[in-house]
Design goal:
Blueprint lengths: L1 H20 L2 H21 L3 H6 L5 H22 L22
């Protein structure tokens, strides 16, 4: 029985790691931070011709800073409220499909 318990515990740890790794907030936050850095750099290196096209507003700089703020807020949210995987005991029993064999 102890071997089975150890195996179940190991699977629960693996499941918890996968849950944290593939949390959608991490993906969205990471992408917004990466693209925000790139767009901010484009805004910092904008030429005078680029600024004249946008009527004197550095669109890339402001958009990049907004993307950085949004991405960082997703990552802070992930840090403050991490996902807790559902224990196997808490999951509802699924009804069996008709014709399914055990």
């Amino acid at each position: 029985m102890s071997e089975l318990h150890n195996e179940v515990s190991e699977l629960e740890r693996t499941s918890a790691t996968a849950t944290r790794l593939f949390d959608i907030r991490r993906v969205i936050g990471g992408l917004f931070v990466v693209y925000g850095v790139l767009v901010t750099i484009a805004g910092l290196t904008a030429s005078d011709a680029d600024l004249r096209k946008a009527q004197g507003i550095n669109i890339n700089l402001w958009t990049g800073l907004g993307m950085l703020a949004l991405g960082l807020s997703f990552l802070v949210w992930l840090k403050l409220r991490p996902t807790v995987p559902t224990a196997a005991e808490d999951l509802p029993d699924l009804p069996e499909k008709p014709g399914a064999r055990s």
